Amino acid sequence: MSNVGIFAEFIGRKVNKVRWKPNDLMASTMFVTGSWDNEEDNVLELWGLTSENENSAKDFPPKLLDCVQQDGNITQIRFLDNKFVAVSTDNGTVKVYRIIGENEDANIHFNEVIAWENLHTFGKGQRCSCKDLAVCNYSLATIGDDYKLNVISLNTKQIHQVLEGISSSPLTCICFLTETEVLCCNSLSQMKLWDLRVAKSSITANINNFTQTQVPITCVAQHPSQKHFIFTGSEEGDVGVWDMRTNSLLTTMSSGDASSLTEIAFHPLEPDHLFTCSFGGRLLQWSSKKSYMCRIDPGDMEYSNFWVNTDKVKTRLSINDVIQPIYMPINSLDIQKQQLICGADNEAVYFQRNLKL
Amino acid sequence: MSKTIVYDTLSIPDPSFIDDEVKMLGSWFGMSNICAFPTKMSTLSNNRNSSGDDKTERNIIHLKLKTMLFDPKVRQLVNESSGVFQELQTNVDDPTKSTDALYYSRKYRAILSTCILAIDRSNPDKTNETYNQYKMLLHNLQLIWHLCEVLYLVTVPGDTILNNLLDWIKIHYENAENQASVITENKIAYLTDEHIEEKFTFYWDTVIGLVLQGNIDTTRMLLSNHSQSDTEPFIHAIKILKSMPTYSIYGGLPIAEYTSRFKGWQSSAKAKLECGVFLSDSNLNNVMKIICGDPDAINLIRSHCSTWFQFLVAQLIYTDPTVKKHSLSLYAHRSVSKYYEESEYNHMDTLALDLFDGDLEGFVKKLKSYPDSGWSSTHLTNLLHLCDKIEPEFEMSEAVENKNPNEQYLLDYGTFLMTHHSLWQAGVTYLDYCSAGKGYLSVLLSKLEITSDLRVSKILHYATARRLHNVVSSVCKVKGMLSLQKSRIGEALCWAIRGQDSAFATHLGDLYLKDYVKSGCFSNPDILDNLGSIVVTCDRFMFIGKYIQFLKLALDKKLNEAALLYIELLRSNICPEYFRLTLLMDVLMFIDDSKECYFNITDISLITMRLDDAIMESNEDSETADQFILSKVVKIRQGIVQLLSISILKKKIV
């Protein structure tokens, strides 16, 4: 565990989501945070890293660039590309903002492109949460407490497809497997796979965790290079590895921290490293890569099948704390290039400049 | 009997309270708010006259606690310190980790400084009165905390405390040093031969300020910048300052040796002063008087000090530079009485005096009333408590309850934070470390308003980790009932499972079964097909699980297995009454063209017995057995007869 290069900034609101603004070539210097549990005053904020002078690298403390009021707790933030960002709230609203960058306008700010108020609704003015939001090539998929799955195409700016009653227990998270397949998880540890090409709402696969325990799945991530591997985080702190070719659970891994996982993410370029954060205030790095000390055999074909080999997972996986445990739930994390950012319930965002990969 | 402490008094200037007959009543509103309202305490005769024609407006006054800590800028103080607090508590329990009280004290002070900086940044032109006030409060707090650290947490060999006190004064009263750097950095005056003491009117104030902080090097630098610096008096003065012996703990000089050197140096300076060497410049003469520890200079020193403790330290430099910690109390009292003509102490003065007196208990008690809602008293008391500077039982004689003040403060502060819509999570941290905290938490957590699912998941997380099952079950029950109101049985079932509420689950199971009786199929197949652990904890779901399994077998035409399960279901008698007939109707499934025999004679007698039970019960319930039930019974009876005939044909059992 190293403390070197970790910075914290207290922003005065509990952070539920944090995302780097993507940048193709260089390390990103802007990020977006979404707050929660601040009565009526929940905001989406855009931050820019600052540098003391022209030559030094941009760093913490960040500078607040723009702040947009939202109508509820922010449940998810996803960037569509390096300009457009989609935001969902627990009031059932989904909005897409465009970030007006420095070369377009003197002050960098959000510009609302399109908004769907009450995309998820119970009617009668009751609050209905939009639980999660997934993006894939300018399509958006949202799930909400009303058990609806909306597929929105951003090219036409229209709701493309609505699947109703897709579950009978609360939905928790969603992710695109391919452009046409959507995976929804619910709080009874079930996963359902939907094929969007099939006309009427039909399940292509209904995957259950047959371990008798019905622990809610709280977050889901897809392996960046081996797309058939799906990783889920549960409320009891363990990570499940699923093979979507056979629709089966390969293995579960546990870190010893039994609190609910809040987000699970792979390093986008180095898929050997998985990151999780939890209610217990720990941000963990799960590395499947062989240690640098070992001799790397170039012809090691087994290596590419790491996750299938349960024994290997058990023996070779190493788990390390990225930042010191902070004793408060960490709600979100995001990685871009070598830099990691996470947001927690102590109203702080933490920034790690150089990840050890 | 518990002691009542009055923390604050305020008057409400509302006209409705002016009336003599009106009494003020109040009630708690939420966790931190009070509703106050006027009530007319009238006698009966008055009542008759006044009823109906009372036109005066009556206000209900909503009192809300406004505190510095809940300001968005100051919230970082709460959050960051709660992290340090938690770290400290965990490290105390862990023998492998070091718990250096000084390290943590400095950490807390660093948090204070960061917060002051943040306030400064948001209030650059110092126009916001509230922020100016907050800044002042935090600044004073930092000062007093630092003094406490210097006196109690820093260990000084030989107890010669003066150097530490000087550091403390220098950090918090930086005015003189700042002015000095303004003067010395001004190169124009140097180049243009201007008279520096005329250009900067605060020149001599600065010099005296520096001398009073023992900052001799900078004083010398300033003096040599003076336009007269090459004249005799200035050369002498600079020489004297240069030769002033400084004491350093690690300098290897024994205290006695140092004292004699200091005395020698001062007497030689005094000799020069008495010869009138410095008389040509009255200001310089004053400076030298201070340095010689001349009693005449006391008034001068006093006028240059803004607080009595600054005054105390300034005097000590030139009268008793090797002062010991234990004699500080005496000096402190002397300085206070010299500094104030009348006893007009403010809060800060008494706090500092308690510290110099070594009365930590009194200090901590007074700190409690510092207007920071208990932030400082909680953290500082906790820190002092952990390094055994405060006896845990010091209030035992008074306190009836077996609580030490450390815990009492934690409890107060934690409860106070729990009232905030966002900082409640930090409050949990503090309540965790009091012995009575669990009871408080169980009440406060279940009182939190359920505003969002995110919040529910956090509340459940805290409650589960602390094994507060009553909180878990009550929150789950509330959420479950809300789902049920929206007639979402599946969602309600999830909450029942989560809260391990088998009574609620039974109710939900009944809903499913009654729905089946009505419609002939189960809703929410995705849940009921994968019931999981609920079947073990709740009888109703055990039945549903088995019954669905039975239906599946029957549908797949695995009638042999289905028959076994069917008999098992009937024998165990877990079927609820209202479902009996429906279950018995299923006997008709076993009659098909193949004339296969699935039941033996005991099975059939069991079926008959259950049918009789069902008929008896339905007769008890309602006198008029309705036609529908009767037709069902007839059908079942026909079925049983058919089954019996098949089995007789097949097996020839008589």
UniProtKB/TrEMBL annotation, chain A:
GO CC annotation terms, alphabetical: nuclear pore outer ring
UniProt keyword terms in alphabetical order: Nucleus, Repeat, WD repeat
Database matches in InterPro entries: WD40/YVTN_repeat-like_dom_sf, WD40_repeat_dom_sf, WD40_rpt
Pfam families: WD40 (PF00400)
Superkingdom, natural source: Eukaryota
Subcellular location: Nucleus
SMART domains assigned to the protein according to its UniProt record, in alphabetical order: WD40
Coiled coil residues, start to end: none
UniProt name for this protein: Nucleoporin Nup43
High-level lineage: Eukaryota, Metazoa, Ecdysozoa, Arthropoda, Hexapoda
From TrEMBL, chain B:
Family matches, as InterPro entries: Nucleoporin_Nup85
Top-level taxon of the source organism: Eukaryota
Record keywords, A-Z: Membrane, mRNA transport, Nuclear pore complex, Nucleus, Protein transport, Translocation, Transport
One example of a Gene Ontology biological process annotation: positive regulation of DNA-templated transcription
Function: Functions as a component of the nuclear pore complex (NPC).
Assembly behavior: Component of the nuclear pore complex (NPC).
PANTHER family to which the protein is assigned, alphabetical: FROUNT PROTEIN-RELATED, NUCLEAR PORE COMPLEX PROTEIN NUP85
Entry protein name: Nuclear pore complex protein Nup85
